[in-house]
Amino acid sequence: MFEVTLVGTGGMMPLKDRHLSSMICRFKTKNILFDCGEGTQISLQKIGWGFKSIDVICITHFHADHVSGLPGLLHAINHSGREEELIIAGPVGLKKIVESLLIIARGLSFPIKYLEIESEENSITIGELTIKSLLLEHRVPCLAYKIETHRQGKFDIELAKALNIPKQFYSELQKGNEIIHEEKRYTPNMVLGTPRKGFKIVFCTDTRPIEEIVQFAEYADLFICEGIYADDDKLEKAKEYKHMLFSEAAHLAKKANVKELWLTHYSPSLSNPEDFIENARDIFENSHTGFDGKSTVLKYEKT
Amino acid sequence: MFEVTLVGTGGMMPLKDRHLSSMICRFKTKNILFDCGEGTQISLQKIGWGFKSIDVICITHFHADHVSGLPGLLHAINHSGREEELIIAGPVGLKKIVESLLIIARGLSFPIKYLEIESEENSITIGELTIKSLLLEHRVPCLAYKIETHRQGKFDIELAKALNIPKQFYSELQKGNEIIHEEKRYTPNMVLGTPRKGFKIVFCTDTRPIEEIVQFAEYADLFICEGIYADDDKLEKAKEYKHMLFSEAAHLAKKANVKELWLTHYSPSLSNPEDFIENARDIFENSHTGFDGKSTVLKYEKT
Hints:
The structure is a homodimer.
Chain A: E1 2-8, E2 22-27, E3 30-34, H1 40-46, E4 56-58, H2 64-67, H3 70-79, E5 86-91, H4 94-101, E6 112-117, E7 124-126, E8 129-135, E9 143-149, H5 157-162, H6 170-174, E10 179-181, E11 184-186, E12 200-204, H7 212-216, E13 222-226, H8 235-241, H9 246-255, E14 261-264, H10 278-281, E15 287-289, E16 295-298
Parallel strand pairs in A: 3-4, 4-5, 5-6, 12-13, 13-14, 14-15
Antiparallel strand pairs in A: 1-2, 1-16, 2-3, 7-8, 8-9, 9-12, 10-11
């Protein structure tokens, strides 16, 4: 199962009841955090997630509302006694920005590995997860991220029996591990079918609704996308600041054939996004407003 | 009247219900913020204070929990449309640190004036307030701050009458302004007695309980002081990390003859400081635990 939780859903400025836009997900033992604006360490505590075991932090871009919580979070992770390497990924310039912020959090007990994503060809593999990115259209270089899980083919028990593979190895072969036993070699491809559809989750903020997002988010199980303004009459403002409207996010969701859309990164002036959800649902029915702490658990379909 | 509010009372790491140690005060139209850890802009919203009109931000030192909220707060102030200069004061190195943090909040619409406090002789005068500082004993250079108000002498109405000063000028003279009317000159010292005792508030964190604090805080109306650990059995830890215990803060309060002590900057491990208040009260009776949002309004004594 794949757990996704919105840590915060505010854009530009945190409000007392709406922290800055951030998302965390967990798959098996791996924890990936997306964006880290001011207060993210507080929001993580509020939603009951620890931060000691975060494996990767993916930063979309270097505006304060997406990155200013890094020194505090790294300081808190340090305080938890972590020693293992932490990966931080982001657009080119990442190392300089983070090291500049770390002027107030020196002497961390764990190493940081910086991954500056120069092209969309770069991807991050962590456990059974792959993280890919897409260059968006914002006022500064900004990346959308897509997390995909690899799901192996179905275990063919009849085939395993026919091949006289001892039962005690079924589980390891199912996990993808090779077995050598009594000079015989059993490999997963002997008993596993073609890979099945894994999970696909996209985190997409801040940007204008460019066409490339459609392909990037195609058939995603969950498309988390900014909707800074609810009303279409804010289109000019959205264009000026390179953001998007509820309706624009919904159009992307529809074109990309995603299963579900969660809106996030609201303007501080938008007090109650839920009042405007129809602006998205009229276009893409399975649209939902994100809120701090909104969470879901995705499960593989039985195939 | 002089309004003092604790914005946050946590040390090292914010908790979901306890933001990082910070204090704000207002006297007439002037607003002074002391420290600005991560989330200060959220805590200020929670306690109902705006941040557009902050005149001075005094930073005690450059550990993350005291300064990491600056980029976000300045970004939010910027968003409010401020154009007036903002003063930021702190230990030597301030400009370099703040500019390093501002890598993620470029293009502010208002100028910043940096005051690097090189010696305790430096003081800041803002309106009728004077802010003085004291070098503390922490792991890095760290300053306590003392805010004092200037209170003029009492207006001697009988004397004003005897000097035939027209009644319409009483108010201006009382405010300390000189009047020239029909070729006559009326000065405040003609009708005001010797200056009266103003307010004195001290904000003192992070430090060992050095003797210099006693003199610095002498007769303060309010002594806001760190008490990172409640129990005396944490003395060695307090010494190692250069902090102080409830009892040490209380000893300082007693020796300095302050009116009232508020404890703040608690360790994240100290869940309920109030359970331990007797550790301070046994030494100095008018000791109180600070909490986020604790507030008081001081009024001049009638003299």
